[in-house]
Input
Amino acid sequence: MTQRKDPSAPKPADLPGLGQRIEIADVADPLLHQALAVWNAQRGTARFPTRDAMTPRVMAPFLRNIVLVRAIDDGKDYEFRIVGDAIVQVQGTTLQGLTLTEIDKQLPGYGRALRPIYGALLAAGEPMAWRGRIEQAPMKRAFAHETILLPLGADGTRVDHILVVGVYTFNLAPP
Output
């Protein structure tokens, strides 16, 4: 199976309401630097680490700040497999076990906004970072965030999971 790319999909940097895509080098938060260092150590010489390499033990310092997302059928949908406590607090609900299609039913527009970002990561196979504010919709409350998305895959050529690590604050200045 090959990665699907939809040329009509909005570019991640063009999506309103999720903040701005930033360069990995511009990530400021120390917890995100730690997560990136663990990701790099676990990948070794591979393009990205396997899902199995990113164990709870190696992710312990930032485990409560993760969402482990599984790509379904090369990105036709995505499932939130593991959702850390910090993410649950920000989202106001647990979305664990739900697909983006199902998430859109609970938080209208949220899954639709995430889909092109996840699709871009699947296509590129490279880490991505975002920073900004999420105003109240589709979440129930506003917050600021800095987030990295890290590809995971079994053979180093095909992304099958995305590790999302985020830091959040309810004061609306980006962290």
